[in-house]
Amino acid sequence: MGTLLKRDLAAAGHDVVVLTRRPVREGEVSWDGRTLGSWAEEIDGSDVVINLAGRSVSCRYTPENLQSMMDSRVESTRVVGEAIAGAARPPRVWLQMSTATVYAHRFDAANDEASGVIGGGEAGVPGYWGYSVKIAKEWERAQERAGTPRTRKVALRAAMVMSPDRGGVFDVLLWMARLGLGGPVAGGAQYVSWIHYRDFVRAVEFLIARDDVEGPVNVAAPEPLPQREFVRALRGAWGVPVGLPATAWMAEFGALAIRSDTELLLKSRRVVPGRLLDAGFAFDYVRWQEAADDLVRRVRRGGERRNVRQILLQQLGLPVR
Question: Are 224 and 272 in contact (CB under 8 A)?
C-alpha cells in the first residue's frame, strides 16, 4: 500500500518522503520503527504523516509471528506519536493504518463504525483469532494515547486492498483462480470486504482534505459479499470456468503450503464504510465484479503473462528455473 500511495501522491505533485528500514532510492530515509532518530526531522514541518508500518499478515500465525505483528504495529505507532509530539511544526493530520479485522466474525449484519461489533469473544472460532483483534485494538490504542493535540488523528480500518501489482493480495487470488483453485472455501458463506486500490488512494486523499473527520474510519467498498460470490466474479473476470471447492482442512493444508493462515480465508469480514459515505465520499468501484474486471484488464494491459508454474514456485519460496 505504501508503494501505491507514493506512486499516486507523487504523480499528483506531492513531495513524498518514505521511512523504511532499507532505503535504496532518493526520497527514502532510514528508520527502525522503534526508536527516535534523525528520521523524526522529516515529520517536523510535514503536512501529513501516513503510518503503514507492520509485519505482514501473510505468514503462519505462530505465537512468535503474532507477537511480531503486535510489536511492529504498536512500537512504530508509538514512536511516530513521539516524533509528532516533539515536532516544532507538527503535521496537521496523522493517518494511521489499522484493519477491518478488528470487527467480529459474523454473517448477520454489516459492521460500520457506529454499530459494528468489535471482535475477540466470538464462540466457535479458533482462539488465536481473538489475538488478531487484540493486535488491532492495541494498534489503535497506541495512536489514541499519543499526545498530539495539534494533529488530527485518523485510524484507517482498511479491508483488503486490491491492486494489479505483483505480490499483492489480488495477485495471489488471481493465480489461485488460474490454477483452478478459486472455488468456495468451507462453503463460502463468509463475507469478504475489499477495496479497489484507486478508491483506497482516493479515500486517503479525501480524509487528508476533510478536517472534520477523525477517529476510526472503515476504508472498504460499500458492498462486501460472500466468498463464494467473490471468487465466482474473479473467475468470470479472468475467464476461468470452474474453481475447485475446498473444505476447511483443505484450506489449512493449502495455507501451510504457502506459509499463510486460514484466518485470512475463513473469518467473515462484513465491513461497510459508514463514515466515508456519510462524509460524501463517492466510490468508483462499488461492486466487486466491476472492480475485478478492471483489475484483470490492468493486469493484462501491463503485460502480466507469468507462467502459472513460476507463480506457484514463487509463492512456495522455491527457486524458479
Answer: yes
Q: What is the mean pLDDT of the chain?
A: 92
CA distance to 54, 77, 159, 247, 271, per residue, from 99 (Å) = 11, 14, 7, 26, 11
Quick one: pLDDT at residue 256?
77
Cell 503503514 found at: 52
- Residues 35 and 79: beta-carbon distance below 8 Å: yes
Q: Give 3-state DSSP helix, strand, coil % of the chain, rounded to 5.
A: 40, 15, 45
Give whole-number Cα distances, 200 to 27, 218, 321, in Å.
23, 11, 36
Q: What is the pLDDT of residues 86-122, one digit of tens each?
A: 999 999 999 999 999 999 999 999 999 999 999 998 9
Mean pLDDT calculated for residue range 48-53: 97
Through-space distance between the first and last CA atoms of the chain, rounded to whole angstroms: 29
Name the DSSP class of 225: E
Report residue 157 as a C-alpha cell. Answer: 480500518
DSSP letter string over 78-110?
HHHHHHHHT-SS--SEEEEE--GGGB---SSS-
The three cell numbers of residue 299 are: 493486469
Q: CA Rg, the chain, in Å?
A: 20
Whole-angstrom distance, CA of residue 248 vs CA of residue 114: 32
Inter-helix orientation angle 308-315/169-178, to 10°: 130
- Which run of H or of E encompasses 291? helix 288-301
Residue type (1 letter), 301: R
Q: Which three cell numbers stand for residue 74?
A: 504498536
Query: What angle in degrees, to the nearest 10, is found between the helix axes of 227-238 and 288-301?
Result: 40
Q: At what angle do helices 129-145 and 63-85 cross, to 10 degrees?
A: 10
* pLDDT, tens only, 1-27: 888 899 999 999 999 999 999 999 999
Place of cell 487484540: 134
